[in-house]
């Protein structure tokens, strides 16, 4: 079975920064020099047993988890560039692999997470930690996939309902977090298009749901994502790269 890697179409400074964060074999972004030119690649041990004709589609399914996390972390959701995979490389020979290209990404996740179990390390980056929870935690998988195409009201309502069900199953309630019922109701009425007198603006809703996710993963998984927020500084990629390490 080939050892796959996938070239990332556009590697801005945010992607370059991820090469220092996503170093685990499950979700790895790294740089390879080809004739002195950097190629930024995604690879995953979860694809180690994937048939050749499915590897492209499953790789694109996997990067959706990174995209979902990126949408949560970027203050300006309009500045998130989803990861686009292009050339497939066989790392056994460091040559371009002739494999079937993916058309539409299947709605149903087909990745076999049982082939690799990541180890949690002390004091590791929260982004890396959260992605290591993807194989075992269905809630984390569903949550990141909900936001992977962006954070409009439809996806945020889906994420909100996932959170509500998750904490209810643990005997908890949204009222135990530091969010007022009035604010949460204003969000749900706006998202459901129930025409509240004072609808919640999209940006305010995005901030609310991101903060809610941060609070939930901190309480239940001890993952402190709030420290990884990518500040909006007029979309200057040098600043965005720096903000990964603020």
Given the helix and strand composition, which structural class is it? alpha+beta
Tell me the distance between the termini.
Answer: 41 Å
**Rg calc:** 19 Å
Instruction: Report the count of strand segments.
Output: 5
Q: How many helices does DSSP assign? A: 8
Major beta sheet summary: 5 strands, antiparallel
Strand order of the largest sheet: 2-3-1-4-5
Q: What fraction, in percent, of the residue positions are helical?
A: 25-40%
Mean pLDDT: 88
- Broad shape: elongated
The helix/strand series, from N terminus to C terminus, equals EHEEHEEHHHHHH
Structure characterization notes:
The protein is of the alpha+beta class and 246 residues long. It has helices at residues 13-18, 55-73, 126-132, 138-147, 153-168, 181-191, 202-221, 237-243; strands at 4-8, 28-34, 37-43, 85-90, 95-96. The chain has a five-stranded antiparallel β-sheet. α2 (55-73) crosses α4 (138-147) and α4 runs antiparallel to α5 (153-168).
Task: Write the topology of this structure.
Layout: E1 4-8, H1 13-18, E2 28-34, E3 37-43, H2 55-73, E4 85-90, E5 95-96, H3 126-132, H4 138-147, H5 153-168, H6 181-191, H7 202-221, H8 237-243
Antiparallel strand pairs: 1-3, 1-4, 2-3, 4-5
Please sum up the structure shown.
The protein is of the alpha+beta class. It has helices at 13-18, 55-73, 126-132, 138-147, 153-168, 181-191, 202-221, 237-243, and strands at 4-8, 28-34, 37-43, 85-90, 95-96.
